[in-house]
Amino acid sequence: MILDTNALSAYLDNSPAAVEIVSRANEVAIPVIVAGEFAFGISQSRYRSVYERSLQRMLERCAILDIGIETARHYAAIRLELKAAGTPIPTNDLWIAALSRQHAMAVATRDTHFDRVAGLLRRTW
Predict the structure, then answer these.
(1) 8, 14, 74, 103: least surrounded by Cβ within 10 Å?
(2) Would you call 120 helix, strand, or coil by DSSP?
(3) pLDDT by 10s per residue, the chain, length 125
(4) Number of folded domains in the chain?
Protein backbone atom coordinates (compact mmCIF):
# COMPACT_ATOMS: atom_id res chain seq x y z
CA MET A 1 0.00 0.00 0.00
CA ILE A 2 1.21 3.48 -0.91
CA LEU A 3 0.73 6.17 1.72
CA ASP A 4 -0.50 9.57 0.61
CA THR A 5 0.54 12.52 2.77
CA ASN A 6 -2.70 12.57 4.75
CA ALA A 7 -2.38 8.84 5.46
CA LEU A 8 1.22 9.22 6.61
CA SER A 9 0.22 12.12 8.83
CA ALA A 10 -2.74 10.25 10.34
CA TYR A 11 -0.58 7.18 10.96
CA LEU A 12 2.18 9.18 12.64
CA ASP A 13 -0.45 10.97 14.74
CA ASN A 14 -1.65 7.51 15.87
CA SER A 15 -5.13 7.86 14.44
CA PRO A 16 -6.56 4.43 15.37
CA ALA A 17 -8.28 3.87 12.00
CA ALA A 18 -5.17 4.90 10.04
CA VAL A 19 -2.94 2.72 12.20
CA GLU A 20 -5.33 -0.19 11.59
CA ILE A 21 -5.33 0.14 7.78
CA VAL A 22 -1.56 0.57 7.57
CA SER A 23 -0.92 -2.30 9.99
CA ARG A 24 -2.99 -4.67 7.83
CA ALA A 25 -1.03 -3.90 4.66
CA ASN A 26 1.38 -6.54 3.37
CA GLU A 27 3.77 -3.84 2.18
CA VAL A 28 3.88 -0.12 2.91
CA ALA A 29 5.55 2.33 0.54
CA ILE A 30 6.13 6.07 0.66
CA PRO A 31 6.60 8.00 -2.59
CA VAL A 32 9.39 10.58 -2.61
CA ILE A 33 6.66 13.11 -3.39
CA VAL A 34 4.93 12.31 -0.09
CA ALA A 35 8.21 12.50 1.81
CA GLY A 36 8.73 15.96 0.32
CA GLU A 37 5.21 17.16 1.09
CA PHE A 38 5.47 15.89 4.65
CA ALA A 39 8.93 17.41 5.16
CA PHE A 40 7.60 20.75 3.93
CA GLY A 41 4.61 20.56 6.25
CA ILE A 42 6.60 19.70 9.34
CA SER A 43 9.21 22.37 8.61
CA GLN A 44 6.53 24.86 9.64
CA SER A 45 5.41 22.98 12.76
CA ARG A 46 6.33 23.85 16.29
CA TYR A 47 6.70 20.08 16.81
CA ARG A 48 9.17 19.82 13.95
CA SER A 49 11.82 17.75 15.74
CA VAL A 50 9.26 15.19 16.93
CA TYR A 51 7.78 14.82 13.44
CA GLU A 52 11.22 14.67 11.82
CA ARG A 53 12.15 11.72 14.04
CA SER A 54 8.84 10.00 13.30
CA LEU A 55 9.29 10.55 9.56
CA GLN A 56 12.82 9.17 9.66
CA ARG A 57 11.64 6.01 11.44
CA MET A 58 8.92 5.50 8.81
CA LEU A 59 11.34 6.05 5.94
CA GLU A 60 13.63 3.39 7.42
CA ARG A 61 10.75 0.87 7.73
CA CYS A 62 8.99 1.45 4.41
CA ALA A 63 9.87 1.04 0.76
CA ILE A 64 10.62 4.41 -0.83
CA LEU A 65 9.21 4.84 -4.32
CA ASP A 66 11.30 6.98 -6.63
CA ILE A 67 10.16 8.40 -9.95
CA GLY A 68 11.69 6.95 -13.10
CA ILE A 69 10.92 6.86 -16.81
CA GLU A 70 8.28 4.13 -16.34
CA THR A 71 6.57 6.34 -13.77
CA ALA A 72 6.68 9.23 -16.24
CA ARG A 73 4.88 7.11 -18.83
CA HIS A 74 2.13 6.24 -16.36
CA TYR A 75 1.91 9.92 -15.36
CA ALA A 76 1.44 10.99 -18.98
CA ALA A 77 -1.22 8.33 -19.62
CA ILE A 78 -3.18 9.23 -16.47
CA ARG A 79 -2.93 12.95 -17.15
CA LEU A 80 -4.23 12.45 -20.69
CA GLU A 81 -7.11 10.30 -19.43
CA LEU A 82 -8.11 12.86 -16.83
CA LYS A 83 -7.75 15.78 -19.27
CA ALA A 84 -9.99 14.03 -21.79
CA ALA A 85 -12.57 13.42 -19.06
CA GLY A 86 -12.29 17.01 -17.80
CA THR A 87 -11.41 15.77 -14.31
CA PRO A 88 -7.86 16.85 -13.47
CA ILE A 89 -6.26 16.19 -10.09
CA PRO A 90 -3.36 17.99 -8.37
CA THR A 91 0.04 17.38 -9.96
CA ASN A 92 1.66 15.72 -6.96
CA ASP A 93 -1.29 13.33 -6.77
CA LEU A 94 -0.85 12.52 -10.46
CA TRP A 95 2.66 11.31 -9.64
CA ILE A 96 1.36 9.26 -6.71
CA ALA A 97 -1.32 7.75 -8.97
CA ALA A 98 1.36 6.94 -11.54
CA LEU A 99 3.40 5.12 -8.90
CA SER A 100 0.26 3.27 -7.84
CA ARG A 101 -0.32 2.00 -11.36
CA GLN A 102 3.35 1.24 -11.94
CA HIS A 103 3.67 -0.85 -8.80
CA ALA A 104 0.07 -2.17 -8.79
CA MET A 105 -0.43 -0.92 -5.23
CA ALA A 106 -3.45 0.67 -3.56
CA VAL A 107 -3.19 4.23 -2.25
CA ALA A 108 -4.13 4.99 1.36
CA THR A 109 -5.69 8.45 1.24
CA ARG A 110 -8.72 10.49 2.15
CA ASP A 111 -8.52 12.40 -1.14
CA THR A 112 -11.52 11.28 -3.19
CA HIS A 113 -10.12 12.70 -6.42
CA PHE A 114 -7.97 9.56 -6.67
CA ASP A 115 -11.23 7.78 -7.51
CA ARG A 116 -11.11 9.51 -10.92
CA VAL A 117 -8.04 7.47 -11.90
CA ALA A 118 -9.07 4.30 -13.70
CA GLY A 119 -7.68 1.15 -12.17
CA LEU A 120 -6.47 2.82 -8.98
CA LEU A 121 -7.60 1.24 -5.72
CA ARG A 122 -8.04 3.73 -2.88
CA ARG A 123 -8.07 2.70 0.77
CA THR A 124 -9.41 5.08 3.37
CA TRP A 125 -10.08 5.14 7.06
Answers:
(1) 14
(2) coil
(3) 999 999 999 999 999 999 999 999 999 999 999 999 999 999 999 999 999 999 999 999 999 999 999 999 999 999 999 999 999 999 999 999 999 999 999 999 999 999 999 999 999 99
(4) 1
Q: Indicate whether this model's pTM tops 0.90.
A: yes
DSSP states of 17-78? HHHHHHHH-S--EEEHHHHHHHHHHHHT-TTHHHHHHHHHHHHHHSEEE---HHHHHHHHHH
CATH number for 21: 3.40.50.1010
